[in-house]
Design goal:
Elements (H helix, E strand, L loop, with lengths): L28 H8 L14 H13 L4 E5 L2 H12 L5 E5 L5 H11 L3 E5 L15 E7 L11 H8 L5 E5 L4 H4 L2 H4 L3 E5 L13 E5 L1 H14 L5 H12 L1 H20 L4 E5 L9 H7 L7 E6 L3 H10 L4 E2 L9 E3 L11 H4 L8 E5 L5 H13 L31
Parallel strand pairs: 2-3, 2-4, 4-5, 5-6, 10-11
Antiparallel strand pairs: 1-7, 6-7, 8-9, 9-12, 11-12
Length: about 400
């Protein structure tokens, strides 16, 4: 017979109950001791842990083939927790321009804390050993990257990070665990904006960090200290999303491939970036480290100007003009005007993004409907001359009063 008051006869609910309790009544001092000593998964206060959230953590850990997982209030909260947990004054952090733009804001805070930061283009990842120093403590990357879907060789990054015993952190939001298992490739920690593909319905915000039990314990300390524990209702929504995650990931990947192939054949688009295209610079590496497809996100340049990109997006009927990704609906945006607004203008284009670059996240709509939507919008687009396909070598400018851009909200 079950001792669980929610299931007194042992018939468990099909959905993990939403436990909104802030605090819990102890059955004995011995149980309190076992909880506080970490011997059992017990609960005392919501900032410490929540049973609804804990159930979801274990499911994401299984997806990433990790020993454990810790969930928090957003993807950027997860990244901030990692930085706060493992970096100290005097440490050296390697970041790539090809990560979510909000990291730039966080980097300003980290620099004020005495952390040295080197920013690299993902195209320089093969030469990363040249940038590693004795005090390099962490390498943080995304693969495929946001928004240009560049593929970084995680195994090679692991070998390079070993030069200084640096922690290798991989943001797996674009790939998702359906397509890529960074821990098996040598990453120490995997981080997600669970708002995206894991949740998948545009109705929750959460971050997830997966890794060893040792990393879980360290990150749990930080989460408990700063109070970024996810609420139970969002945890329940995330668990709901996970039930259809693999089905959605498979459909989004096949839709993305179909749209990438269609766009690559049009003269009105250029620089179509998708790891599944055989002429994509990251294709060979993607084939080696990804599986079940290549993810649901692609990027491309529309025409020759931002006005061309705006015109194209404005004509779409099915694909939604909105930020975020990994949702059931297909979403499209201009990163220069949205996800990269955290950066000063001169930094938004130094790694390949143009004012007319578009990011497209495939949803789960019927493929023919999405292709039809692209075609009808394409037919209304008038381009005065063929778009340029060449990616010029770009020089990184010196940082200029970056915190002036830190208050932009997007």
């Amino acid at each position: 017979m079950s001792n669980d008051p929610l299931t007194p006869y042992g018939n468990k609910p099909m959905v993990t109950p939403i436990v909104n309790a802030v605090n819990y009544k102890y059955s004995s001092f011995e149980v309190l001791r076992q909880i506080t000593d970490g011997e059992i998964d017990g609960y005392t206060y919501h900032r410490d842990d929540n049973p609804t959230v804990r159930a979801v953590e274990k499911k994401i850990a299984a997806l990433e083939e990790a020993e454990d997982c810790i969930i928090c209030t957003s993807g950027m909260a997860a990244c901030a927790m990692i930085y706060l947990t493992y970096l100290s004054a005097g440490d050296h952090l390697i970041l790539f321009h090809d990560i979510y733009g909000a990291h730039y804001k966080v980097s300003l805070i980290l620099e004020r804390m005495g952390i040295e930061i080197t920013w690299l283009d993902a195209r320089d990842s093969r030469k990363i050993a040249e940038y590693i120093k004795p005090n390099t403590t962490m390498i943080f990357c995304e693969s495929p990257s946001n928004p240009l879907c560049k593929v970084l060789d995680i195994v090679a990054l692991r070998k390079a990070s070993d030069k200084s015993n640096a922690l290798l952190v991989v943001d797996n939001t674009f790939a998702t665990p359906y397509h890529q298992k960074p821990l098996s490739l040598g990453a120490d920690i995997v981080v997600h904006s669970a708002t995206k593909g894991l949740g998948g319905h545009n109705d929750l915000m959460a971050g997830a960090i997966a890794g060893s039990k040792s990393h879980y314990d360290k990150l749990w300390f930080t989460r408990q200290a700063i109070g970024t524990t996810l609420d139970a209702y969002s945890g329940s929504l995330l668990e709901r999303g996970l039930k259809t995650f693999e089905l959605r990931a498979e459909k989004m990947s096949s839709n993305a491939m179909a749209m990438a192939e269609y766009l690559a054949d049009s003269s009105k688009f250029s620089k179509v970036r998708y790891p599944g295209l055989q002429d994509d610079p990251g294709y060979t590496t993607a084939v080696r480290q990804m599986h079940n497809g290549f993810g649901g996100v692609l990027a491309f340049d529309v025409g020759n100007s931002q006005d061309d990109a705006k015109k194209f997006i404005s004509e779409l009927k099915v694909i939604c003009h909105a930020v975020s990704l990994g949702a059931t609906e297909s979403l499209i945006c201009i990163p220069y005007l949205t996800t990269l607004l955290y950066m000063p203008p001169e930094r938004r284009t130094i790694f390949g993004v143009e004012p007319n670059t578009v990011r497209l996240s495939a949803g789960i709509e019927k493929t023919e409907i999405l292709l039809g939507d692209l075609e009808q919008a394409l037919n209304k687009l008038e381009i005065k001359s063929d778009p340029k396909n060449k990616i010029d070598d770009l020089k990184i400018p010196a940082k200029k009063k970056g915190d002036a851009y830190a208050n932009i909200r997007i």
